[in-house]
Write a structure and sequence with these properties.
With 298 residues, the protein is of the alpha/beta class. The chain is built from 8 helices and 11 strands.
Protein backbone atom coordinates (compact mmCIF):
# COMPACT_ATOMS: atom_id res chain seq x y z
CA UNK A 1 0.00 0.00 0.00
CA UNK A 2 1.47 3.40 -0.92
CA UNK A 3 2.53 5.71 1.86
CA UNK A 4 0.15 8.70 1.86
CA UNK A 5 2.28 10.74 4.28
CA UNK A 6 3.94 13.58 2.44
CA UNK A 7 7.56 14.37 3.23
CA UNK A 8 7.14 17.89 1.86
CA UNK A 9 7.11 20.70 4.45
CA UNK A 10 3.82 22.49 5.04
CA UNK A 11 3.39 26.03 3.76
CA UNK A 12 2.40 29.19 5.58
CA UNK A 13 1.95 29.16 9.37
CA UNK A 14 3.76 31.36 11.84
CA UNK A 15 5.96 33.08 9.28
CA UNK A 16 3.13 34.19 7.01
CA UNK A 17 2.88 37.47 8.88
CA UNK A 18 6.55 38.18 8.13
CA UNK A 19 7.00 36.71 4.65
CA UNK A 20 4.04 35.07 2.91
CA UNK A 21 4.84 31.77 1.25
CA UNK A 22 7.90 30.80 3.29
CA UNK A 23 8.08 27.32 4.68
CA UNK A 24 7.25 26.04 8.12
CA UNK A 25 9.17 22.89 8.99
CA UNK A 26 7.21 20.61 11.27
CA UNK A 27 9.69 17.77 11.69
CA UNK A 28 13.26 16.81 10.91
CA UNK A 29 14.43 13.63 9.27
CA UNK A 30 17.78 12.48 10.58
CA UNK A 31 20.93 12.69 8.46
CA UNK A 32 19.29 14.52 5.55
CA UNK A 33 20.56 18.08 6.18
CA UNK A 34 23.45 19.78 8.03
CA UNK A 35 22.84 20.44 11.72
CA UNK A 36 23.15 24.21 11.37
CA UNK A 37 20.03 24.37 9.18
CA UNK A 38 17.85 23.60 12.19
CA UNK A 39 17.30 25.48 15.43
CA UNK A 40 15.34 24.14 18.37
CA UNK A 41 12.57 26.34 19.74
CA UNK A 42 13.44 26.59 23.47
CA UNK A 43 9.75 26.86 24.40
CA UNK A 44 8.01 24.24 22.27
CA UNK A 45 10.94 22.00 21.38
CA UNK A 46 10.02 22.16 17.67
CA UNK A 47 12.79 22.19 15.09
CA UNK A 48 12.72 25.42 13.08
CA UNK A 49 14.26 25.90 9.66
CA UNK A 50 17.11 28.38 10.12
CA UNK A 51 16.46 30.54 7.01
CA UNK A 52 12.83 30.95 8.10
CA UNK A 53 13.95 31.94 11.60
CA UNK A 54 16.35 34.49 10.14
CA UNK A 55 13.50 35.94 8.07
CA UNK A 56 11.55 36.32 11.31
CA UNK A 57 14.52 38.18 12.90
CA UNK A 58 15.15 35.23 15.23
CA UNK A 59 11.71 35.46 16.86
CA UNK A 60 10.21 31.99 17.30
CA UNK A 61 6.55 31.00 16.76
CA UNK A 62 6.10 31.08 20.55
CA UNK A 63 7.28 34.71 20.59
CA UNK A 64 10.66 34.00 22.14
CA UNK A 65 13.21 36.64 21.13
CA UNK A 66 16.31 34.52 20.75
CA UNK A 67 19.74 35.96 21.48
CA UNK A 68 21.56 37.30 18.44
CA UNK A 69 25.15 38.38 17.89
CA UNK A 70 26.35 41.96 17.58
CA UNK A 71 26.70 41.98 13.79
CA UNK A 72 23.15 40.70 13.33
CA UNK A 73 21.82 43.28 15.80
CA UNK A 74 23.46 46.14 13.92
CA UNK A 75 22.08 44.91 10.59
CA UNK A 76 18.58 44.69 12.04
CA UNK A 77 18.89 48.20 13.50
CA UNK A 78 20.34 50.39 10.75
CA UNK A 79 18.47 51.29 7.58
CA UNK A 80 18.99 48.68 4.84
CA UNK A 81 21.40 46.90 7.21
CA UNK A 82 24.15 49.37 6.29
CA UNK A 83 26.44 50.95 8.85
CA UNK A 84 29.99 52.20 9.35
CA UNK A 85 31.95 50.03 11.78
CA UNK A 86 33.79 52.04 14.43
CA UNK A 87 36.92 50.43 15.87
CA UNK A 88 37.03 49.66 19.59
CA UNK A 89 40.16 50.69 21.54
CA UNK A 90 42.91 48.21 22.42
CA UNK A 91 43.43 47.51 26.11
CA UNK A 92 46.06 45.58 28.10
CA UNK A 93 45.32 41.85 28.13
CA UNK A 94 45.19 39.87 31.36
CA UNK A 95 46.46 42.72 33.59
CA UNK A 96 46.05 40.59 36.74
CA UNK A 97 47.58 37.39 35.25
CA UNK A 98 44.39 35.62 36.33
CA UNK A 99 43.80 31.89 36.19
CA UNK A 100 40.90 29.75 37.40
CA UNK A 101 42.29 26.48 36.14
CA UNK A 102 42.58 28.02 32.70
CA UNK A 103 44.40 31.27 32.06
CA UNK A 104 42.39 34.37 31.22
CA UNK A 105 44.55 34.80 28.10
CA UNK A 106 43.47 31.37 26.86
CA UNK A 107 39.81 32.12 27.57
CA UNK A 108 40.07 35.41 25.67
CA UNK A 109 41.78 33.69 22.75
CA UNK A 110 39.03 31.04 22.54
CA UNK A 111 36.26 33.65 22.76
CA UNK A 112 37.88 35.79 20.06
CA UNK A 113 38.28 32.83 17.75
CA UNK A 114 34.62 31.89 18.16
CA UNK A 115 33.28 35.46 17.77
CA UNK A 116 35.75 36.82 15.24
CA UNK A 117 36.37 40.06 17.17
CA UNK A 118 38.31 41.38 20.15
CA UNK A 119 35.63 41.56 22.84
CA UNK A 120 31.94 41.75 23.64
CA UNK A 121 31.25 45.28 22.33
CA UNK A 122 30.72 46.30 18.70
CA UNK A 123 30.06 49.87 17.50
CA UNK A 124 28.35 51.07 14.33
CA UNK A 125 27.20 54.39 12.90
CA UNK A 126 24.45 54.96 10.37
CA UNK A 127 20.80 55.91 10.13
CA UNK A 128 17.94 54.41 12.14
CA UNK A 129 14.65 55.09 10.36
CA UNK A 130 16.30 58.11 8.79
CA UNK A 131 17.89 59.53 11.95
CA UNK A 132 21.72 59.46 12.14
CA UNK A 133 22.96 57.67 15.25
CA UNK A 134 25.78 55.68 16.81
CA UNK A 135 24.88 52.26 18.25
CA UNK A 136 26.91 50.05 20.56
CA UNK A 137 25.92 46.41 20.99
CA UNK A 138 26.88 44.09 23.82
CA UNK A 139 27.10 40.48 22.67
CA UNK A 140 26.21 37.89 25.30
CA UNK A 141 27.88 35.12 23.29
CA UNK A 142 31.30 36.66 24.05
CA UNK A 143 32.06 35.54 27.62
CA UNK A 144 28.49 36.23 28.71
CA UNK A 145 28.72 39.88 27.64
CA UNK A 146 30.77 40.46 30.78
CA UNK A 147 31.87 44.00 31.56
CA UNK A 148 35.65 44.40 31.50
CA UNK A 149 38.13 47.10 30.57
CA UNK A 150 37.66 46.46 26.83
CA UNK A 151 33.88 46.88 27.12
CA UNK A 152 34.30 50.03 29.23
CA UNK A 153 36.71 51.58 26.74
CA UNK A 154 34.39 50.65 23.87
CA UNK A 155 31.44 52.34 25.59
CA UNK A 156 33.48 55.51 26.11
CA UNK A 157 34.62 55.41 22.47
CA UNK A 158 31.00 55.08 21.31
CA UNK A 159 29.93 58.03 23.46
CA UNK A 160 32.78 60.17 22.11
CA UNK A 161 31.94 59.15 18.53
CA UNK A 162 28.34 60.26 19.07
CA UNK A 163 29.49 63.57 20.53
CA UNK A 164 31.92 64.21 17.66
CA UNK A 165 29.17 63.52 15.11
CA UNK A 166 26.49 65.37 17.07
CA UNK A 167 24.16 62.34 17.02
CA UNK A 168 22.35 60.19 19.62
CA UNK A 169 23.86 57.08 21.18
CA UNK A 170 21.88 53.84 21.33
CA UNK A 171 23.12 51.03 23.58
CA UNK A 172 21.87 47.44 23.30
CA UNK A 173 22.73 45.76 26.59
CA UNK A 174 23.24 42.04 27.25
CA UNK A 175 25.43 40.90 30.13
CA UNK A 176 25.80 38.51 33.02
CA UNK A 177 27.69 41.11 35.03
CA UNK A 178 31.30 42.09 35.66
CA UNK A 179 34.21 40.06 34.27
CA UNK A 180 35.66 38.38 37.35
CA UNK A 181 39.03 37.76 35.67
CA UNK A 182 39.67 41.53 35.81
CA UNK A 183 38.64 42.06 39.42
CA UNK A 184 38.39 45.69 40.55
CA UNK A 185 39.39 46.89 37.08
CA UNK A 186 36.08 45.53 35.83
CA UNK A 187 34.09 47.30 38.55
CA UNK A 188 35.79 50.59 37.67
CA UNK A 189 34.08 50.48 34.27
CA UNK A 190 30.73 51.13 35.95
CA UNK A 191 31.93 54.56 37.06
CA UNK A 192 33.79 55.30 33.82
CA UNK A 193 30.78 54.48 31.63
CA UNK A 194 28.56 56.59 33.89
CA UNK A 195 30.87 59.56 33.31
CA UNK A 196 30.64 58.95 29.54
CA UNK A 197 26.84 59.10 29.77
CA UNK A 198 27.18 62.41 31.61
CA UNK A 199 29.33 63.71 28.74
CA UNK A 200 26.46 62.91 26.35
CA UNK A 201 24.04 64.78 28.59
CA UNK A 202 26.40 67.75 28.78
CA UNK A 203 26.44 67.77 24.97
CA UNK A 204 22.61 67.62 25.04
CA UNK A 205 22.60 64.43 22.98
CA UNK A 206 20.03 61.67 23.55
CA UNK A 207 21.09 58.37 25.08
CA UNK A 208 18.64 55.53 24.52
CA UNK A 209 19.01 52.04 26.01
CA UNK A 210 17.53 48.84 24.60
CA UNK A 211 17.54 46.11 27.24
CA UNK A 212 17.88 42.62 25.79
CA UNK A 213 18.04 39.18 27.37
CA UNK A 214 19.78 39.05 29.78
CA UNK A 215 20.86 42.37 31.29
CA UNK A 216 22.12 41.79 34.82
CA UNK A 217 24.80 42.67 37.36
CA UNK A 218 27.00 45.74 37.17
CA UNK A 219 25.73 46.66 33.70
CA UNK A 220 22.23 47.12 35.15
CA UNK A 221 23.76 49.14 38.00
CA UNK A 222 25.40 51.57 35.56
CA UNK A 223 24.87 52.51 31.90
CA UNK A 224 21.92 50.17 31.31
CA UNK A 225 19.68 52.26 33.56
CA UNK A 226 20.90 55.76 32.71
CA UNK A 227 19.11 56.30 29.41
CA UNK A 228 16.75 59.11 28.53
CA UNK A 229 14.43 56.37 27.27
CA UNK A 230 14.52 52.66 28.11
CA UNK A 231 13.12 50.12 25.65
CA UNK A 232 13.22 46.35 26.13
CA UNK A 233 12.64 43.24 24.08
CA UNK A 234 9.75 40.98 25.16
CA UNK A 235 10.63 38.51 27.90
CA UNK A 236 14.09 39.95 28.53
CA UNK A 237 15.57 39.16 31.96
CA UNK A 238 16.59 42.45 33.58
CA UNK A 239 17.93 42.83 37.09
CA UNK A 240 20.96 43.12 39.37
CA UNK A 241 21.05 40.02 41.57
CA UNK A 242 19.47 36.71 40.60
CA UNK A 243 15.96 35.83 41.74
CA UNK A 244 17.15 32.95 43.96
CA UNK A 245 19.65 35.21 45.70
CA UNK A 246 16.93 37.79 46.36
CA UNK A 247 14.48 35.18 47.66
CA UNK A 248 17.06 33.69 50.02
CA UNK A 249 17.93 37.18 51.30
CA UNK A 250 14.41 38.51 51.90
CA UNK A 251 12.97 35.05 52.66
CA UNK A 252 9.94 35.69 50.50
CA UNK A 253 8.63 34.28 47.22
CA UNK A 254 8.96 36.72 44.34
CA UNK A 255 5.90 37.49 42.16
CA UNK A 256 5.45 35.78 38.76
CA UNK A 257 7.39 37.43 35.96
CA UNK A 258 9.67 39.26 38.38
CA UNK A 259 12.68 40.82 36.57
CA UNK A 260 11.12 40.30 33.13
CA UNK A 261 10.68 43.21 30.75
CA UNK A 262 6.88 43.28 31.00
CA UNK A 263 6.96 43.36 34.82
CA UNK A 264 9.50 46.20 34.79
CA UNK A 265 7.38 48.17 32.34
CA UNK A 266 4.41 47.77 34.68
CA UNK A 267 6.54 49.08 37.57
CA UNK A 268 7.93 52.01 35.59
CA UNK A 269 11.55 50.90 35.14
CA UNK A 270 11.08 50.29 31.40
CA UNK A 271 9.30 52.82 29.18
CA UNK A 272 8.14 50.37 26.52
CA UNK A 273 8.48 46.72 25.56
CA UNK A 274 9.03 46.52 21.81
CA UNK A 275 9.13 43.43 19.60
CA UNK A 276 12.20 43.01 17.43
CA UNK A 277 10.43 43.51 14.07
CA UNK A 278 9.20 46.91 15.33
CA UNK A 279 12.36 47.98 17.17
CA UNK A 280 14.11 49.95 14.41
CA UNK A 281 10.97 51.96 13.58
CA UNK A 282 10.25 52.71 17.25
CA UNK A 283 13.88 53.63 17.89
CA UNK A 284 13.88 55.93 14.88
CA UNK A 285 10.75 57.69 16.11
CA UNK A 286 12.16 58.16 19.60
CA UNK A 287 15.51 59.45 18.33
CA UNK A 288 13.86 61.84 15.87
CA UNK A 289 11.62 63.26 18.59
CA UNK A 290 14.51 63.70 21.04
CA UNK A 291 16.71 65.37 18.43
CA UNK A 292 13.87 67.70 17.39
CA UNK A 293 13.53 68.71 21.03
CA UNK A 294 17.26 69.37 21.25
CA UNK A 295 17.18 71.56 18.12
CA UNK A 296 14.22 73.59 19.43
CA UNK A 297 16.00 74.14 22.75
CA UNK A 298 19.22 75.29 21.06
Amino acid sequence: MPDNKSTEPKRGGWLSRFAPGVRKIVSRRSNDTPDNLWVKDPDSGDMLYRPDLETALWVTPSGRHMRINAETRLRFTFDDGRYEAIATPDVPEDPLKFSDGKSYKDRLSAARKAAGRKDTMMIGAGEIAGTPAVAIVQDFSFMGGSLGTAAGEAFIAAAHAAIERGVPLVCFTAAGGARMQEGALSLMQMARSTLAVQELKDAQLPYVVVLTDPTTGGVTASYAMLGDVHLAEPGALIGFAGARVIESTIREKLPPGFQRAEYLQEKGMVDRVVSRPEMAAVLGGVLSMLMDGRRRAA
